[in-house]
Amino acid sequence: MPYEPRMVRLVPNGPPDKGLTPLELDQADFQSPLPEQHWHVFFEDDEIGLTVGVWDTTTMQETFGPYPGDEFVSILEGDFAMVDGTGNATRAGIGDCVAFRNGAPMSWKQQGYLKKFFITLLSPNAETPQIYTADGAVIIVDPDTPLKASSKPGEPIEREHISFRNDTGNMTVGVWECETAEFEMEPFSVHEYVQVIDGEATITEAAGTTHNVRASDCFFIPKGTLCKWSIPTHIKKYYAQVAT
C-alpha cells in the first residue's frame, strides 16, 4: 500500500510494545564518564535529516563543539545547562520548551536524569556552519510572549509569535493561538511538532480517525497528512515547523 502520513501522538515511554531503546555511546562525545541514554524515534525522514522522538539520559556533559542540528525540545523531566565557550550557562528544566541553533559552539551539561521530546533537523548534505559564538543560540520559548494577529478579516482569529527561525529558513519555532474555528480537510503543508499550552481541539483524519488534544499533549503531524482541525473555543500551542 502507498505511504499515507498520519498524525503521531508522542508518549514519554515510547510505544507500549517497544519502549525505549538503549543507545550505543562513544566516549569521544563526552567530557564526563559515559551516561546511560535511551530513545525512541516516532518519525524520521532521512532525505532531509528530520527526526522526531523521545530521549533520556543520566548525568553527563557532552564534548564542547558545534550543536548537531536545529532542534526544538520539550523537557519532560529534569533540567540542564547549555554551556558556551566562556563558561556561561543557559539553564532550562521541566516544562520548558527550548530551541537550539545548528552549529553553535556549546556543551550540554546536566546533573541527574533528564527526558525530552525532540524534533531535530540536520541535513545529511549540508556542511556544519562556521559559527563562533553561542549568543542567541539557545532560546527558551516564552508561552506568555505577546502575540500578533496573523489572520485576515473574515478568517478565524489567529495570533502568533515566531521565537526562532534557523539559518537556512526551513525550520520555524513559535507560539500560536486560535479562537473558535472549523478548518477544512486538506493536506498538511509542513511537518509540524506541537505541544498544546492550553485549550483544546479535535483533529480528524481522512479515514475518520479523531484525535482530541488538550493542554500538555505533544504530537507530530507529517507533511501531507490529510486532516482538519476543529477548535470549539480556543487553543494555544508551541510549534516547530519544518518546510520542504
Number of DSSP strands?
Answer: 21
Low-confidence stretches: none
Residues in β-strands, percent: over 45%
Mean pLDDT: 97
Question: Topology as H/E string?
Answer: EEEEEEEEEEEEEEEEEEEEE
Cα end-to-end separation:
24 Å
Number of helices: 0
What is the number of independent domains? 2
Report the biggest beta sheet as strand number plus sense, adding barrel if it closes. Answer: 9 strands, antiparallel
At CATH level 2, the architecture of the largest domain is Sandwich
Which CATH class of the largest domain is shown?
Answer: Mainly Beta
Structural class: mainly beta
> What is the fourth-level CATH superfamily of the largest domain?
Jelly Rolls
Question: What percent of residues adopt helix (DSSP H or I)?
Answer: under 10%
Shape: globular
Radius of gyration: 18 Å
Structural summary, described in words:
With 244 residues, this protein is mainly β. It folds into two domains: 8-140, Jelly Rolls; 148-242, Jelly Rolls. It is built from no helices and 21 strands. The strands form three sheets. Strands 1, 14, 15, 16, 17, 18, 19, 20 and 21 form a nine-stranded antiparallel β-sheet that branches. β14 and β15 form a beta hairpin.
Task: Provide keyphrases for this structure.
7-stranded antiparallel sheet, single chain, 9-stranded antiparallel sheet, mainly beta, about 240 residues, Jelly Rolls, 2 domains
Write the layout of secondary structure elements.
Layout: E1 8-9, E2 21-22, E3 37-45, E4 50-57, E5 60-61, E6 65-66, E7 70-77, E8 79-83, E9 89-93, E10 97-100, E11 105-110, E12 114-121, E13 138-140, E14 148-149, E15 158-165, E16 171-182, E17 186-187, E18 191-205, E19 210-214, E20 218-221, E21 226-242
Antiparallel strand pairs: 1-20, 2-3, 3-4, 4-12, 5-11, 6-11, 7-10, 7-12, 8-9, 8-11, 10-13, 14-15, 15-16, 16-21, 17-21, 18-19, 18-20, 18-21
